[in-house]
Design brief:
The chain is α/β, with parallel strands linked by helices. It folds into 2 domains: 3-145, Cobalt-precorrin-4 Transmethylase, domain 1 (3-Layer(aba) Sandwich), CATH 3.40.1010; 148-278, Tetrapyrrole methylase, C-terminal domain (Methyltransferase, Cobalt-precorrin-4 Transmethylase, Domain 2), CATH 3.30.950.10. 29% of the residues lie in helices and 18% in strands. The longest helix has 13 residues, at 94-106. It holds the Pfam family TP_methylase.
Length: 280
């Protein structure tokens, strides 16, 4: 389901992009598709290449989690095509999105495929690259800050701390069929990775918690959920692994959200407090 919707088109746009000296800006050529990560939400976390793409694209094919403030950085006349996917809601089919990218590029337009976070972190960017390559469409990939890094930082939770973890694992909370992935080695996750970050995991969090605890992860491990990270609507709930499901239910937290399990969560109190004291 691909829609051309004025309702998703912001009313304002900024002026020309800043172009600091010393940056080699690749030309956004007609007939090309750029797959660009929009980051977790805050427009300030965009890359310079992402900003260039927003201001030069002829058409933007964007996902559900792309913040309206980011879309507003494109000129008002730029066409915007909504191609969002949200669990349990009517969503665009991946095959339709890929076909649309090819058709737009073949029409000679500069096509920006704008994805929340990073295109290659649970973003199906690799699938779209393969499809474009198979159809002879040139493309470029521009990385974005993934929620498992930027979202944690915004919540005052470091991804790594020298004293607590030398590894971090990113995990999707649901597979293509909408269920918890059956290929996960829960015993390895429970024992081998000090910090676990689950994307799209709220729906199946009770199952995830049960499997981690059954595999040997302590129910007393610090844990947190960060919803709508880096946006004005950001909310953070901290608890333990064993109490996180109830804490989220009590707080009324809803997707999109990431869940982090590990001792790094215990540093939030210090880091978040320090950030508040420092001010904007």
């Amino acid at each position: 389901m691909m829609t051309d919707t004025a309702a998703h088109t912001p009313d304002t746009a900024t002026g020309p992009a800043l172009r600091p000296a010393g940056v080699d800006y690749p030309e956004f050529l007609p007939g090309w598709v750029w797959l660009v990560g929009a980051g977790p939400g805050d427009p300030g976390l965009l890359t310079l290449y992402a900003l260039q793409a927003l201001q030069q694209a002829d058409v933007i094919v964007y996902d559900a989690l792309v913040d309206d403030r980011i879309l507003a950085l494109a000129p008002p006349a730029t066409e915007r095509l909504y191609a969002g996917k949200r669990g349990g809601r009517p969503s665009a089919k991946q095959a339709d999105i890929s076909e649309t990218l090819v058709a737009l590029a073949r029409s000679g337009r500069r096509v920006l495929r704008l994805k929340g976070g990073d295109p290659f972190v649970f973003g199906r960017g690799a699938e779209e690259c393969q499809f474009l390559h198979a159809h002879g469409i040139p493309f470029r990939v521009v990385s974005g800050i993934t929620a498992g890094i930027g979202g944690l930082a915004a919540a005052g939770i470091p991804a790594t701390v020298r004293e607590t973890n030398a590894a971090i694992t990113f995990i999707t909370g649901h597979a293509a069929n909408g269920e918890v992935p059956d290929s996960l080695n829960w015993n390895a996750l429970a024992h081998a990775s000090p910090v676990l970050v689950f994307y799209m995991g709220l729906k199946h969090l009770p199952v995830i918690v049960d499997r981690l605890v059954a595999a040997g992860r302590s129910a007393d491990t610090p844990a947190a959920a960060v919803a709508e990270a880096t946006t004005p609507r950001q909310r953070v709930v901290t608890a333990t692994l064993g109490t996180l499901v109830e804490a989220i239910r009590t707080a009324g937290l809803h997707p999109p959200a990431i869940v982090v399990v590990g001792e790094v969560v215990s540093l939030r109190q210090i880091i978040a407090a320090g950030a508040r004291q420092a001010g904007p």
